[in-house]
Design brief:
about 400 residues; alpha+beta; 13 helices; globular; binds flavin-adenine dinucleotide
């Protein structure tokens, strides 16, 4: 008897239906307003927290779902509601995953709950890796962490950019270089606790899409951190640096890359949520919009467009679910399947939302209809968490075994 199945189990279906209800009743109706306001939708994050959708327990449960598809299913539904609000709700998880991936059990227990706060006092967290001169090239980052033996403190200096929730977060996770001569292998991740002097928000960016999500620079000016804020601890870091100095490669992954790798299929699932939302609007519109005496879907040209949209969305979801299942079952990503899923889902969201705008004609170009916003929101999915070009680079290196540049 075969055990292969693509059917989500009862637990995943329950999560899907629960999140879909929240996305349809709370998120979608508020989407246009928060997109225009370009502000973090705190009341909606709070409502999500009250319902248990914005909580460490909820994400931990999905993260450790043995099938792997708990997180992608949750992401797809939330982002079907709206991507800007969706990212405001799940942006914290990027920092949480960094702590889960690199922290000790004690650090996870201390910092992860503080990232979410409580339903009466919600907090968000930020993951700060990118810098003005280090985007795709994470190894070029210049934020420096210097250890002071006498006080067992780390002192951080530098400027981070593009940080989701940067400056408004309670907890910031910052990737810094400890030994610049070692490139990516000389980096480490640090927790900056709430209220730490020296951390401030720089410019807040006005964006093309996902405008409800806060994106800003984070300035670190002689930020002093107790030794225990180094994720993974000093002993582990010293061993890692010693190996790097001897030229021994235990694994090619550095702190930032470990975080990105774990989160890529989940980001792909967000893109699928946007694509599915736009496809559904376009399908409804095509059935009801009459031109030349018949619904526009009666034209093969329009119907085939919808057929292609649906096919690509389902193909993207299969790639995301495969990568998520592989991660959950500890299978090696020999062909960079995580990157594949993010690449294809991100490009699909951009393409599908563009087709949806076309099917809605002039209405698709206005803010009276949601596909214009969905199209703007989709554009980030070929940029953040590794651009589409970087995903192709990672896949090309994995499949060829060559150091493609
Ligand atoms: C809204 C938003 C939210 C973000 N949130 C976060 C966050 O929370 N935390 C965080 O750390 N970062 C975050 N980022 C940063 C994001 O990950 C970077 O923008 C992204 O990695 C690209 O870096 P860059 O913008 O510097 O572009 P660059 O690296 O300068 O790339 C510019 C162009 O060159 C191409 N390119 C670069 N190198 C190569 C190559 N070797 N081969 C082929 N093409 C190449 C790129 O694909 C791209 O098209 C966010 C960005 C945005 C816009």
């Amino acid at each position: 008897m075969s055990t292969f199945s693509l059917d989500p189990g009862p637990d995943q279906i329950a999560v899907r239906d629960w999140l879909h209800g929240f996305a349809a009743d709370v998120v979608r109706p508020a989407a246009a307003e928060w997109d225009e306001r370009e502000e973090t939708p705190w009341p909606i994050i709070q409502e999500a927290a009250k319902l248990g959708i914005y909580s460490l327990e909820f994400y931990a449960q999905q993260y450790f779902d043995p099938s792997g598809v708990g997180i992608p299913i949750a992401m797809e539904e939330l982002f079907w509601g709206d991507a800007g609000i969706g990212l405001s709700i799940v942006g914290t998880t990027l920092a949480a995953v960094a702590v889960l991936a690199n922290g000790t059990d004690e650090q996870i227990g201390t910092w992860a709950p503080q990232m979410f706060g409580t339903p009466d006092d919600v907090k968000v967290a930020a993951f700060c890796s990118s810098e003005p001169d280090a985007g795709s090239d994470v190894s070029a980052l210049r934020t420096r962490a210097v250890y002071e033996e006498a006080t067992d403190e780390w002192v951080l200096n530098g400027t981070k950019t593009w940080a989701t929730n940067g400056g408004i977060a309670a907890v910031h996770v910052v990737v810094a270089t400890v030994d610049p001569t070692l490139g990516a292998r000389g980096q480490a991740s640090f927790v900056v606790p709430p209220g730490t002097p020296g951390l401030s928000q720089g410019q807040k960016f006005k964006k093309h899409g996902i405008r409800a999500s806060h994106t800003a620079e984070v300035v670190l000016d002689s930020v002093r951190l107790p030794g225990h804020c180094l994720l993974g601890g000093k002993e582990k870091l010293d061993e890692r640096l010693a190996r790097a100095r001897e030229g021994v490669r235990k694994s090619g992954r550095n702190a930032a890359m470990a975080t990105f790798e774990a989160s890529r299929p989940a980001v792909g699932a967000q893109a699928i949520g946007i694509a599915r939302a736009a496809y559904e609007v376009a399908l409804d519109y095509a059935k009801t919009r009459v031109q030349f005496g018949r619904p526009i879907i009666d034209n093969q040209g329009v119907a085939f467009q919808l057929a292609d949209m649906k096919t690509r969305i389902d193909a993207a979801r299969l790639l995301v679910w495969r990568a998520s299942w592989m991660a959950a079952t500890n299978q090696p990503f020999t062909s960079a399947e995580g990157s594949m899923s993010k690449l294809y889902a991100g490009e699909t969201a951009k393409w599908v939302t563009a087709q949806a705008m076309q099917i809605l004609g002039g209405n698709g170009f206005t803010r009276e209809y949601p596909v214009e916003r969905m199209h703007r929101d989709s554009a980030i999915y070929s940029i953040f968490e590794g651009t589409s070009e970087i995903q192709r680079l990672v896949i090309a290196r994995a499949v060829s075994g060559l150091p493609i540049r």
